[in-house]
Amino acid sequence: MSVHKEVKRITTHILQEMKNHGEKIAMLTAYDYSMATIVDNAGMDIILVGDSASNVMAGHETTLPITLDQMIYHASSVVRAAKRALVIVDLPFGAYQGNSKEALNSSIRIMKEAGAHGVKLEGGIEIAESISRILTAGIPVMGHLGLTPQSIYKFGTYTVRAKQETEAQKLMEDALKLQELGCFAVVLEKIPARLAQEVSASLQIPTIGIGAGQHCDGQVLVIHDMLGINKGFKPRFLRQYAGLYDIMNDAIKNYIGDVKAKSFPDEKEQY
Ligand code: KIV
Predict the structure, then answer these.
(1) Measured in angstroms, how far is the CA atom of residue 52 from the centroid of ligand 1?
(2) Quick check: pTM over 0.85?
(3) How far is the CA of 151 from the centre of ligand 1 (A)?
(4) Using CA positions, which residue lies closest to atom 2 of ligand 1?
């Protein structure tokens, strides 16, 4: 039995009820109006305007280059499309690490200029002050622990995090701290499934996993990855639900062929 079937808009309270009732939460990224329309109409609970836009939309190697203005542009397009899903927006690298005032100002811009419903920040205890300050303004905050791509140059690789006991312990402490501060959910990225299970059982708020196993309260994927638009990206955690690269490539080749062969447009396709 779904706890949210008839609702007009998914809220953080509904997400909490979903966890309480054991109903899994579905989250997917989107960065533009057309994709977000499809995602929202399909019944997604949360649309994440991830800073993965830096990779899949802009072609950067990491998430670091995307700016707050660019995130606001993507987010405002998604918000216009999302009639039912909760829209959460990543605070990009450099828009919150400076101090808590900067974190609050960046979050206010996202809420005011894009019309988003909440923000996501990477990190634990180190960013506690920023999280508290954003929450004080009434802005819902989603945490993000484990593999935090904005720190890629500190980690050096995108491999599984928190395999060692000390890092696992720190992650558990961070998760409890995020809950204590008032975050409404926490993303757990690329950590052992057993650790994600323990964290999910220890927290009252929902955990949303990516590469963190089946015991998280919800799952998130990057839309370009799960639709098979990024052909070369096939980590173990990724289930590809379509092969859009090949479908689009065939369609585009057919179009080129038709133009060259002078078979498009035909008589019925002109005025
Ligand atoms: O930016 C993003 O898409 C994310 C998800 C991978 C959780 O943060």
Answers:
(1) 6
(2) yes
(3) 13
(4) 50
Is residue 61 flagged as an active site residue? no
Residues with CB under 6 A from ligand 1: 29, 48, 50-52, 90, 187, 189, 210, 220, 222
In this structure, are 228 and 116 located in the same domain?
A: yes
Please give the number of the atom of ligand 1 that sits closest to the Cα of 27.
7
Same domain, 199 and 250: no
Q: Provide the residue-wise pLDDT of the chain in tens; the chain has 271 residues.
A: 576 666 789 999 999 999 999 999 999 999 999 999 999 999 999 999 999 999 999 999 999 999 999 999 999 999 999 999 999 999 999 999 989 999 999 999 999 999 999 999 999 999 999 999 999 999 999 999 999 999 999 999 999 999 999 999 999 999 999 999 999 999 999 999 999 999 999 999 999 999 999 999 999 999 999 999 988 899 999 999 999 999 999 999 999 999 999 999 999 999 9
Catalytic residue among 113, 126, 180, 189: 189
Domain that holds residue 253: 244-271
- State whether 155 and 257 are in the same domain: no
Peptide bond into 235 cis (omega under 30): no
223 CA → ligand 1 middle, Å:
10
The domain that holds 220 is classified in CATH as: 3.20.20.60
Q: Are residues 172 and 260 in the same domain?
A: no
Query: What angle in degrees, to the nearest 10, is found between the helix axes of 33-41 and 68-81?
Result: 40
